[in-house]
Amino acid sequence: MSAEVIYGNVLAEELRSEMKQEVQELSKQNVYPKLVVVIIGEDPASMSYVKGKQKASAKVGMDSDLIELPESTSQDELLALIEKLNGDDTVHGILVQLPVPDHIDDQAVIEAIDPKKDVDGFHPSNVGKMLTGQDTFYPCTPYGILVMLKRANIELEGAHVVIVGRSNLVGKPVGQLLLNENATVTHCHSRTKDLRSHTKKADILIVAAGKADLLSGEDVKEGAVVIDVGVNRVDGKLTGDVEFDSAKEVASYITPVPKGVGPMTITMLLHNTIKAAKQIHNVQ
Ligand SMILES: Nc1nc(=O)c2c([nH]1)NC[C@@H]1CN(c3ccc(C(=O)N[C@@H](CCC(=O)O)C(=O)O)cc3)C=[N+]21
């Protein structure tokens, strides 16, 4: 078998043109969704994602501000800025690019953001809502994966989903979202014994471990769906957690890196910002 490749960038483009229409409609009601991205320090990889976010916002006609702070910014200064953005009625989405420098407590930052403006979906109150199956801001990467699977008409109910990686950003929340869709979910991680024995059983294999080429075709069941969430820079090039060429021969569907999950992450961020603006201004 040679898998069908699910191009996230193509789907992202489609969804963004729908969003552009929606942003235009909202402007007639004097609602102008605005995202503020805060970045601390000058990590080049982080800068490149942030630029992607700015470009995507501009494409859907959305306002987006970038606040660049020096590496030396204190936690109190950052929390004061977040307070200010929480109170600014023109701002609907606040994203602090992670990771933050070591002298700043990331959980304190996440919890300082008003849950109504938490377009990353990382605030414990929004995480709790997701866990209990309530409508809220879902974390962008998990949400993007869900939308990709749905658009490809992949059956989720009763499917055995195996997730490699248990971060709060991807591994844990994607399992929760798919559990809410009635999938059977297995979480694997760095301490899992005999990883392959688990991945080989997956109908849908989601790999978010952050290790280049951690898995290959030999770890994949014939006909499985492979979602590669890895963003690894190897010799300056972006690669995933799955060896694409060998996995493609075994899988039924596979996402590439780049042009897979990444562009969907940004798209769901824009979706969440529009949703936040509509809720804050109480419009449909
Ligand atoms: N608070 C917070 N929220 C995040 O959502 C967040 C974050 N911090 N920190 C960093 C990670 C990483 N991330 C990516 C988003 C898009 C691409 C993306 O679009 N990648 C393109 C290629 C980009 C390139 O070539 O550099 C692609 O896969 O095709 C990648 C990575 C969001 N993150």
UniProtKB/TrEMBL annotation:
Residues 139-279 form the Tetrahydrofolate dehydrogenase/cyclohydrolase NAD(P)-binding domain. Residues 6-120 form the Tetrahydrofolate dehydrogenase/cyclohydrolase catalytic domain. GO terms for cellular component: cytosol. Pathway: One-carbon metabolism; tetrahydrofolate interconversion. Keywords: Amino-acid biosynthesis, Histidine biosynthesis, Hydrolase, Methionine biosynthesis, Multifunctional enzyme, NADP, One-carbon metabolism, Oxidoreductase, Purine biosynthesis. Its EC number is 1.5.1.5, 3.5.4.9. It catalyses: (6R)-5,10-methylene-5,6,7,8-tetrahydrofolate + NADP(+) = (6R)-5,10-methenyltetrahydrofolate + NADPH; (6R)-5,10-methenyltetrahydrofolate + H2O = (6R)-10-formyltetrahydrofolate + H(+). Gene3D superfamilies: Leucine Dehydrogenase, chain A, domain 1, NAD(P)-binding Rossmann-like Domain. GO terms for molecular function: methenyltetrahydrofolate cyclohydrolase activity; methylenetetrahydrofolate dehydrogenase (NADP+) activity. GO terms for biological process: L-histidine biosynthetic process; methionine biosynthetic process; purine nucleotide biosynthetic process; tetrahydrofolate interconversion. NADP(+) binds at residues 165-167, 231. Homodimer. Catalyzes the oxidation of 5,10-methylenetetrahydrofolate to 5,10-methenyltetrahydrofolate and then the hydrolysis of 5,10-methenyltetrahydrofolate to 10-formyltetrahydrofolate. Belongs to the tetrahydrofolate dehydrogenase/cyclohydrolase family. This is Bifunctional protein FolD. It comes from Halobacillus salinus.
